[in-house]
Records
---
Amino acid sequence: MQPENLQIDNPIVNLFSQKKNGLGAVPLILAPMAGVTDLPFRNLAHHYGAALTVSEMVASQAMIRETPQSLKIAANPENMGLNAVQIAGSDPEVMAQAAKMNVALGARIIDINMGCPVKKIVKNGAGSALLRDEELIGRILSEVIASVDVPVTIKIRLGWDEDNLNSVSVARLGESLGVSCVTVHGRTKAQMYRGVADWDAIGRVKSSVSIPVIGNGDITTPQLAKEMLERSGVDGIMVGRGSYGKPWIFKQILEFLTTGEDNFTPDIMELEQLVTNHFKSMIQFYGELIGNRMARKHLAWYTKGMVGGAQFRKEINQSPDPEATLAKTLAFFRSQRQLRAA
Ligand SMILES: Cc1cc2nc3c(=O)[nH]c(=O)nc-3n(C[C@H](O)[C@H](O)[C@H](O)COP(=O)(O)O)c2cc1C
């Protein structure tokens, strides 16, 4: 690591100086979500004000084998906004190598997954399994930080379960080893996604370290974002599921935090444009077959709660190619416009 370089253009330092620079709101961050936060979605989140986006987790082993899927996940083109690439794994050397490769491919921040509760990740000792082994966390952080000259951040949960809450200790360990920022999802591994995120517990991590802390869990409205900020005092807010079918949530939150107004929602014409552009960018990114399939969940989220939405979702799930899906999408939005004009 070269500390001098970190001083000159440190994206984490820049990110958290926004508020001090008078821009008003804390930075908003798009959460890493496997199967969701691909390049097209991250671009949309940036467009609507996310100051940082995080890639889907990329398995370090797959990364060093340069599998096509891992290279796609870690895609980090220069012309997009600030993006972190998140690596998962449990072998310090492999993770350091994966981090290095990502930096060579343009990553400006490396995030380490220490929170994923999914069985296939945990059984390999990665994700939230790391929270049970602080000694291993120490070795991973030392190796990864020593191997790259960009900031390294971590994303953790409150602990393995109610009896093993060690987020404060992991955050302090990270800070002592040179981690630049810690994101805390306010649940334990045992909770998976059940119950509610504990924002007070996130606040306890915030008051235990000097590095920036990002709060995460259950932010679905601007009002909840403000409440989390007030309860926990975090330096940034990360939004995951609240952005499903609603990538403009970042703009909504920013406006609410800076002006107290909550009235930004795209009208039906803007939404049609957004949805069709998103669909086309997915086809371009993944190719026709996979893009058409991957886009279905986004189309379903965008049209949730709309009249005729259930029928539309049924139709696109059977739609064999992008042309057919696009035609059905345009027809659906035409009917929405007619409904609203009536
Ligand atoms: C579909 C899905 C995929 C996720 N994938 C990842 C991941 O790759 N890496 C990670 O650190 N967290 C992952 N998470 C967790 C989210 O980043 C976030 O911590 C969690 O959803 C809580 O935030 P939210 O309530 O705003 O959604 C995932 C969550 C979901 C729902």
---
Amino acid sequence: MPIYEYELCDGTCAICGGKFTLRRPLSAPALTKCPLCKKPVRRVFSSFNTPQLTKPLSLSDAKKAGFTVLKRLGKGEYERQ
Ligand SMILES: [Zn+2]
């Protein structure tokens, strides 16, 4: 389950500290209120938790970076010469 980071839209809260992280399933609806104090919150897109969001990578980007998509060196079974 991914960990999401939230902060209060306004003010602060003694319960959650105004900023908190929450482990939620991908299928869960977007969190709009602090589950503790019920104040409105917004999602924080931090590079700490989701570095891939700061620099979106496509398959072509991966190839340009030197990744071999079809040959998996870890298993060795695809590396045949
Ligand atoms: Zn709170």
---
Amino acid sequence: MTDTVVFSHPTGDGPDVALERFEVPDGPDREARLAKVPRPDPYYVDLGMLYRFASLEAVRRSAPAGFIPMHVAVRGHMGTGKDHDIEQFAALLGLPYYRIPLTGEVRDITLIGSTKLHGDGMGGTESRWEDGDITRALRGPAIVNLSELNAAGAETLFALHGLLDRYQALDLPTGETVRLRDDVRVFGTMNPTDLRDYAGTQTLNKAFADRWVIWEKGFPSKDELHEMLVRRYPDLAESYAEAISRLAREVNESFGSRDAGTRVETPMSLRTTLDRIPVGLRIHHATEDPLRSAWEEFVLPHIDTYDRDHYETVWNAVVRNGPSEQPFG
Ligand SMILES: Nc1ncnc2c1ncn2[C@@H]1O[C@H](COP(=O)(O)OP(=O)(O)OP(=O)(O)O)[C@@H](O)[C@H]1O
Ligand SMILES: [Mg+2]
């Protein structure tokens, strides 16, 4: 029996997409793979990305033989939930999830593999091939998330060119060819380099970029932030949910502003909004202005000194004085 997952259109303006879940076949690494299937996050609010992933997946499944699969790279600012979307897609499809960060440090031997020396049990050594992270992931059903694509060095990316184009395989130095299986999906995430600096990132090599469909992920709207907050903290007072979601929205609007004199240089990530501020509210629940205390201790320290004035401008415009009631019911 195979199960089916149904993906609904975020605004109801499109048909449902129903997809059969993947099966992890028997094999020596079945248990290890099953352990890599993520759990659905009960606090996850789908802002439409899962539906887009599912729509592309449905096209792929109905495509004629010889179809060259497309790989999706999600591009968006820090903490907009890119990796989380891909992980939740893996959870729903029942696919083992391999998140492989491509930082500037990572070498292709870490990703592809290398020959290592082992004791042969008789006092000597023998050399044996050991799969790297990507190779291991490709050997069975998987969603491979190459995160921070644009932080990778050029030689790392060249090693992946063949995998991502018509050739659909990785050639190992051992002579083995590891093909892209029918039950493997490759995703990526990256930060945009056009607007602000993310240390260690660069514009994507054009030939590499051409191997992906690039989908932009924007900042969530005020209503979406509000929904995420109340889903995660059902006892959070409405006045706080409202103030926090407005603050985050306004800061992020200011981040996108063209006016260098007033714009903030650091966006307010989902980690700040959903994790840090609520912790601050719990700690400071008994102070006169819990939101202000949380802001001072859990938001401002993340902001460069020269940028604090801009953050405070948004604070004054949106909140000035936080709610006076207790944050949690
Ligand atoms: N759709 C969502 N619903 C609820 N919570 C979310 C959602 N998306 C992300 N989050 C929360 O926000 C946090 C940040 O998400 P994630 O790590 O995916 O961001 P990212 O875009 O990959 O950031 P970075 O560019 O910094 O790597 C996660 O820990 C998760 O708890
Ligand atoms: Mg990320």
